[in-house]
Design goal:
CATH class: Alpha Beta
Protein name: Oxidoreductase
InterPro entries: AKR, NAD(P)_OxRdtase_dom_sf, NADP_OxRdtase_dom
CATH topology: TIM Barrel
Strand content: 15-25%
Strand order of the largest sheet: 3-4-5-6-7-8-9
Structural class: alpha/beta
Bound molecules: NADP nicotinamide-adenine-dinucleotide phosphate
GO molecular function, one term: oxidoreductase activity
Distance between the termini: 16 Å
């Protein structure tokens, strides 16, 4: 038996919305023109409807790029996640200023989801989450709030802290080669509480393509290692994978991870990694 029931759906819940099981990241873009073409193509296929960005990426340039995407494909076709730098939480006016700047770069009046990029060490988690809720939700800058890089204890604390909004997402490093930390405690907690896990660095920056076990499974199934690595993640309930690419052929390979599921024996083999 695999560790989690296999989710056969290519749609995943986030709060009261559903999004595609694969979204696209926007960190470390080398060629913005090509990256934009790939993002547009991804949305135009109808297979991708969520994009991840952050005020930190390219010092705002990634949000501007996502803004261009929204103007080309239409605001309503993309669920946008962005992230605020955690030290904004020290001063509400600073947090508000940062959120307004993100919205301006994105060219939207409300972002779908805003995350605390990583937890502050020197402020209680409850206080961090309450501050985000107070500014982002109460003033209408975001539809949903969430966290990123929170471990299971921090997520538990965050879940207890909000007053009216829910924590709908924890975005964490999760891949077939970096799975234990997530699968042992975090994902079970997320599943119990209706929190979606956005899996970042799902390709280990391309490393999954060279891993012998992933390659062996891929060869056996007539898929590529990248497709196996992504399919492993989206086979989990409430897991959305957010790989990054700015190459058309890579996008097509990524999209080939949708529409099928690894057989149980393959999942079990990969769960030993
Ligand atoms: N919350 C956080 O703290 C946090 C941290 C890291 C990342 N993230 C988010 O997660 C997203 C993805 O993570 P990531 O960028 O770290 O890593 P990733 O998605 O695992 O890897 C991206 C790298 O893999 C390459 N790649 C993409 N498709 C490929 C394919 N089919 N075959 C071979 N190589 C391929 C990309 O190159 P090409 O562009 O040339 O295809 C890029 O160099 C980020 O963009 C960001 O939005 C969040």
């Amino acid at each position: 038996m695999p560790l989690f029931p296999v989710d056969p759906s290519d749609r995943k819940p986030i709060g009261g919305d559903t999004v595609s099981a694969i979204g696209l990241g926007t960190w470390a873009i080398r060629n913005p023109r090509r990256a934009l073409e790939v993002l547009v193509e991804a949305v135009e296929t109808g297979l991708v409807d969520n994009v991840d960005t952050a005020e930190m990426y390219g010092d705002g340039a990634a949000e501007e790029l996502v803004g261009k995407l929204l103007r080309i494909v239409g605001r309503d076709r993309v669920f946008v996640t962005t992230k605020v730098l955690p030290w904004r939480l020290w001063r509400p006016e600073e947090l508000e200023r940062a959120l307004r700047a993100s919205l301006r770069r994105l060219g939207v009046s409300t972002v779908d989801l805003v995350l605390i990029h990583w937890p502050l060490d020197d402020m209680p988690v409850a206080e961090q989450v309450k501050k985000l809720e107070r500014v982002a939700i109460s003033r209408g800058y975001a539809r949903y709030i969430g966290v990123s890089n929170f471990d299971h204890r921090q997520l538990e604390e965050a879940l207890e802290a909000t007053a009216s909004a829910e924590i709908v997402v924890n975005q964490v490093h999760y891949s077939v080669l970096h799975r234990r930390q997530v699968e042992e405690k975090l994902l079970p907690l997320a599943l119990r509480n209706g929190v979606t896990i956005q899996a970042y660095t799902p390709l280990e920056r391309g490393l999954v393509a060279r891993h012998p076990v992933v390659r062996r499974v891929a060869e056996r199934l007539g898929r590529t290692p990248v497709q196996v690595a992504l399919n492993y993640l989206i086979s989990r309930p409430r897991v959305v994978a957010i790989p990054k690419t700015e190459q058309r052929d890579h996008l097509r390979e990524i999209l080939g991870a949708l529409g099928w599921r690894l057989p149980v024996e393959a999942l079990e083999e990969l769960e030993k990694l």
